[in-house]
Amino acid sequence: MAKLSVLLHQIDNGTVLLPEFQRGYVWNRDQVRGLMRSLYLGYPVGGLLIWETEPDQASVRGGATDGGVRRLLLDGQQRITSLYGVIRGQAPAFFEGDASAFTGLRFNVEDENFEFYGPAKMRDDPRWVDVTRLFTDGLQPFIKDFSSVPEFTVYLERLNRLRQLLDREFHEEKITGADKDVEVVVDIFNRVNSGGTALSKGDLALAKICAHWSPARQVMRDQLKRWESVGFEFSLDWLLRNTTAVATGRAVFTALDAVSATDFETALTRSVGYVGNFLEAASGRLGLDHDQVLMGRYAIPVISRLLHLSPGGRFADAVHRDKVLFWYVHSALWGRFAGSTETVLAQDYEVVRESGIDGLIASLERWRGGNLEIQARDFDGSTKGSRFYPLLYMLTRVKGARDFGSGLELRAEMLGRLTSLQVHHIFPKALLYRAGYDRSQVNAVANFCFLTQDTNLTIGKRSPQEYFAEAEEKHPGVLASQWIPTDPDLWRPERYPDFLAARRELLAQAVQSFLTELRNGASAVAATELRPVTVVADEQDDVRSAQVKAMAEELVRLGYAEPALDSEIADPVTGRALAVAEAFWPDGLQVGQGRPVVLELDPDVADLPRLAELGYEVFTSVDALLGYVTRRNESASGASAPSGSLASPGSSASSVAGPVGEDEPETGTAVDVEFNEAMRSVYDRARAEANYHATYFLSMLAEHGSLATARKLLHAPAVSDGFAALWERGRLDLTVEALVVQPRFADLFTPAEIEIAHHRLGQFGYH
Q: Which of 36, 496, 699, 740 has its CA 20 to 30 A from that of 757?
C-alpha cells in the first residue's frame, strides 16, 4: 500500500516518474471533480501499477534521480497527476497536457460539492473553499474564517475530512525483474489499459528507441512544430512512418528493433529532408501550399523511400518530379492509403525498390482497374473536406485562374499586396437556401471558386446573374479562366443543378489535361515555381459552420480533444469516401479513450451503416453531441443527470418554440401567459410555413416550460439545430431568439440574455 502523501513526496523528489511511452494527461475538470468526490466519500478509486526498474532500462519524463531504482507509474497517471495538481497547486515535472483541468477547484462546506471557480457564484461566498489552499496552508486560515458562524464545528469537520485524503492509501502492484524490458512492460500496460489509453504500435516503437536515445521523441516533436509554423500539421506516428521507410525499407514499426540509435537518428534527419523536398514540390509545382489542401499524407512515406533510393536524395530532374506528383495526386484521390496502411506501404516500397516511379504508376493503374482518368462525376462532393476540393485549389494555382474583380491571375507574384485568397460561393448560400436547395447542394465543390478577399467582400451575396456579366465585360475571358459555364441561362437559380453539371465537366477536363502533362513531363522544365499565398477563413455567415465552430471551442474548453473539421472518412477496404464529417475525433473525444467520434450533419449523403460497422460513434446533430457530452461529464463528476438532458446520438433538437405539455398550467403574469402563447404560435407557424417539425423540442418544452426552455437555448454554447434549420429556410423570425428580442417580453429576460439573442440574429442577417 502507498499513502498519497508519500506518493506526492516521491514525485517531488523525482523517484516516481512516467515512462517516456506514456501519453499525456487527458482528463477534464469533471473527471477531476468526480475523483475528488469519490475520495471524499470514501469510495474506491482503483489501485496503481508501478514498474520498478534500473535507470538504463527505460527512458522517462520529468527528470530522474541519480542512480537507484526508478518507480515508473504505468496505471494511475491520470488520478495521481490530478491529485498532485490539486494538492500542490501545480503540475508535476512529468506533466504534458492542460493544467486548467485541475486548477481552481473549490469545495462547498455546506453542501459538500466540488466545483471549479466561477466568480459570479463564488467571489463573495466564503463557503466555497479553495481546495489547494486547504492543503498548502492547513486548517488554521479557515478556523478564523468560520469561527463566528453557527456551523463552525460541522464545517471544520468536513474540511478536516477532506485534508485527511493525504492519508488515503492506494493499493500498489509492482512489475520488477531484469526480464521485464520495455516491450514486455508495454504489453502489460496495454492489457491493463484495454478500456483506457492504450499505446499504438508507434508508441511502442518510440518507447524502445527512447530507451537508447532519450531525446528521440522531443527531437521529432520539434520538427513537427517547424512544419506547423509553415502551415503543415503532421503526427508523430506519421513522421515515424517516414523514418521507418528510410531506415529499413519496411512498413512495420517492429522493423526498427534492428536499428541502432545512431542509425535511427541518421534516418530521421534524412527523412525530414526528403519530406522537405516533397513539400517544396507540392507547393511550388502544384500550389498545394497549406495543410487543408495537402491530401494523401500516407503517400509521402513512399516518396521518402523513393528519394532515399535516388542519387542525392532528390528528384532526378523536373520530369521525374512531375511523374512523382502525378502518382501522389492519384493515390490521394482514390484513397490508396485509406486502410490496411502497412500492407499497402509494404507493397509500394517493394515496387519502388524494383522499378521506381514508373512501377508505382503502373501498380496504381492496375489497382484502379486501368482507370486513372478524372470524370465530371468525381467533382460531385461537397464542403472543403471533399477529396476533390484540393484539386480545385490546385487548378486555380497552376492554370492561371483570374480574379473577377482585378482580372489578375491568382498568383502571389501577380497579386502583390492582394495575396489573401478566400473561398467564394459562386451562387450565394442564402440565395440557394431560399430557392429550396439542401446543404450538400449549396456547398458543392463545383459551387466554389477562389477570389481575392477584397473581391469576395465586394461581390457579397449578389447573384451570378448580376456579377458574372460585369466581370466578363470588364475582364474578357475571366469566367473561362475559372471554368465557369458562359451560357447566361445557367446563371439563374432555377438552373443551378445544370450549372453544377456543366462546371463539373469543365473542371474534370482541366484537371485531366494538367495531370496528363505531369505524367508526360510535357511542361516540367518550363513550369514556373508558385509562391505560397494565404487562404483566409470564410466569413461566418453560415449558421452551420458557426454552430460547429462554437461547439468545437466549447468541447476544447471542457477538456476534450480538438476535432478535425471538414474531414473525409474513407472506407479502409475500398478507399471509398463514407462521409465528410463536419467534425471528427479519430482518437475519441479524449485521446485514446473511447471510439472515434463523427459529427455528420448531412446523413443522407453519408454511409452511416458502414461507419457504425467500422466502430465509429456517429452524431447527426450538434445538439445531440453536446447533450451526450453533458451527460458524460455529469457521470464523470458523480452528479446526477438533470432532467432535460435529452439528446442522444442521431437526435435533433431545435431552437424553434413548441407547445407546452397538456398538463402544464398557464399561470403567472399576463406577459408570462403571452410568451407561452407566442411559443405555441411560432411552433405552429414553423411547421405550417417552413415545413419544420421540432419533434425533439416538444419534449423539452413539456418538461421545462417556455421560459426555462428559452433560457437554456440562450445559454447554450452554440446555436441550436433548429436555429440552423430555420436559417437555411430563411425564417429566423420563427426562432426563440426572435421572440426574446421583442420589447413586450423584455421583462422576462436579463439584458445579457437579450443581447445574446440580438447578437445571434444580427450575425446571421436578421434585423
A: 699
